[in-house]
Here is the input.
Amino acid sequence: MQIIMLSGGSGTRLWPLSNDARSKQFLKFLPVEGSEERESMVQRVVRQIHESGLDAGLTVATAACQRDAIEAQLGRGVDVVTEPERRKTMPAICLAAEYLAREKGCADDETVVVIPCDPFTGEGYFEAVRRMAECVEGNVADLMLMGITPTYPSAKYGYVVPEYATGRHGAFMVRRFVEKPAVDVAERLIAEHALWSGGVFAFRLGYLLRIARRYVDCPTFEGVREHFDEYPAISFDYGVVEHEASMAVVPFGGEWRDLGTWLTLTDELRHSTYGNVITDGRQNNTHIINELEIPLMCIGTSDLVIAASPDGILVSEKNRSEDIKLYADRLKARPMFEERRWGWYKVIDQVEFPDGYCALTKQLTVNPGCALSYQQHACRDEVWTFIQGSGEIVLNGERRPVKRGDTVFIPKGSRHALRADTLLTFIEVQSGSNLVEEDITRFPYDW
Amino acid sequence: MQIIMLSGGSGTRLWPLSNDARSKQFLKFLPVEGSEERESMVQRVVRQIHESGLDAGLTVATAACQRDAIEAQLGRGVDVVTEPERRKTMPAICLAAEYLAREKGCADDETVVVIPCDPFTGEGYFEAVRRMAECVEGNVADLMLMGITPTYPSAKYGYVVPEYATGRHGAFMVRRFVEKPAVDVAERLIAEHALWSGGVFAFRLGYLLRIARRYVDCPTFEGVREHFDEYPAISFDYGVVEHEASMAVVPFGGEWRDLGTWLTLTDELRHSTYGNVITDGRQNNTHIINELEIPLMCIGTSDLVIAASPDGILVSEKNRSEDIKLYADRLKARPMFEERRWGWYKVIDQVEFPDGYCALTKQLTVNPGCALSYQQHACRDEVWTFIQGSGEIVLNGERRPVKRGDTVFIPKGSRHALRADTLLTFIEVQSGSNLVEEDITRFPYDW
Here is the structure.
């Protein structure tokens, strides 16, 4: 059995804490039971898979720009398939299926379960996943769905109408599937005892490969990946589920909540304030999260979510927090905070002068034993001032130790690399005519 | 005639836009009629004095830490008296009176008018000031007050009960003065047709010198200033007005509003948002001011004031905005933004490591022709990276040009100065064991 965890999705619903590189599934807000620790959605799902005792391989399907965040949170032992560009869930699942076939050598009759990483689920969820896999193995249907008990006539989910008369292995054949119906249609579907589709799918690998290869058929995984843009950019629900005749559903009646908006996420938080926050104690249903170092003061207020990060500041009425995405998508700003495989950085200052010259100042922290790649920038100088720890830099082939108090000037065109011996923090001032992450040429370097 | 403008006061009521070095009177929020420009309270008062045609010398009495802000806003031509420490209004007025006598050579019979800088006043205000001065010259009383028509029984003003039967020069003798009464007493005073004291006082210089010299009597102004701590630390209302028998009041019935809190200040603003602000257009009685470069997004919300600056972020119900001071006073943080005589700086990053080592990163802008003093730090290294403009630095006696793209390392103990030829911006990374503004030794340097 193989599990594909989908961890794509753009991050603007929980702006300013999420951005293109740090989507909602990486925010460490969820309380870990019996501990003061917090974990992210992806960490929670992976922990739950391990605790469920499911004997399954795990592959994470994600956007290329999120690979570093996945590795930072789950370690490097995880199999990761990166989509060259965002193209919704059908292409993502097709690519991951090809990865199982071509790279992990899975057979056509291998059972595959696709799970999303963003619902907050309770006990019994992975029992339902196991039952779905058993139904695939028992040939109950070609495609298995998970059915969630609807709580309101939402227009944002798919609806599964089961044939309740025909249960087998705790599953029911599917009479009808309707993706994202209008609210009045959703009301009628709920009256017919329809269930929400929980975004969990199980099938044999060969089933999906037959569908995937209608669009892209290459003998190698890299070949498939190069033709990724030839898969239709639609969701798995529209591209596969809506057209499938042989489907069954396993109902799951336990805890299941979509943590996609501030309104739903704040319901799960253990505390009402996080970070450097001062209040007069008169907040009513208000959640405040401050990831900046400067203080955030709140006097009074009701039914608000307030969040501050290097990307920006949000003050929103909770019940309007679904509107954030609309406005955040218009903000074409660069991410101001990113987790990378070597550590993390935040942008602390950004200036653009009328003549187009720019300066960008970052604080960067490199984890012990990690290294920045040997690289070169065409359009910018960099000045590094080390303020914590020690390590080694390479500048145009010359290697030397650096430590707290040292300053290194890296003129444009010079090749440079950095490795941390201990936790290494430095301030970087970039200046030049074009300060984009893409102005980088990487070279191999053997430490 | 001499005018003393009081511009002291700590800045926490309008936190985070005001701080110890940038009090509310320096915030440039007030619309200038017939223009898109904005001006600060001190700039507005000085402009109004000029426009009123009063033939008067102007002296600004302020705290030492605000001298740079005064000069940045009013230019260097203004006479400024700086109090060595904050000690309320009576010591401030005594010191300014000694300055007029000892430094400006004013005679004992010179008419002096003391005006505050924080009320927002309309037409006719300076006509009332002129009438107060005329009353002093006509010997109506030893001390003249300005009376404002009360709008509610406030406990934060002084109340003047006039002898309405005895008008002269448009003034009335004062029967009684009560400083900051309880609300029920204020109600009874208003029923007696009492007026608020507007904090404007007029007298002959000799009158005040006789009072001041009861506490400090020195032949030189510098001598007086050295003994500043011997004046009682009380307000002019408690120290002088409450005990004076010969007082008259000039009523002023025009526009007069105390801009001391966010609630009252936001009433004067022309726009509801300032700076990098995105909204869904559904704000109800909400004012948003963002002095940071990162975006501030507001979705919905009613009756709030939201303000962000390098010092912090405020989200407050408007009618509770008086409580801000209580909490802001507890924030013992360094100011993160300051206007200086040579330009301005903002702190963009601040880190303290567990071993006490610190790093502080600033963006500084030096105005053309201005210079930082020749100075030395005992406990910190500095790295300057120039990102705009050109000028000259002096490092341990050696002078050389600097321009955009240059980096200078200034190890602890080295003497350094900087002068801007054009508008000069640089990023400064300070690091060391003790990063306080006070770690500075200044030396003369002759450019």
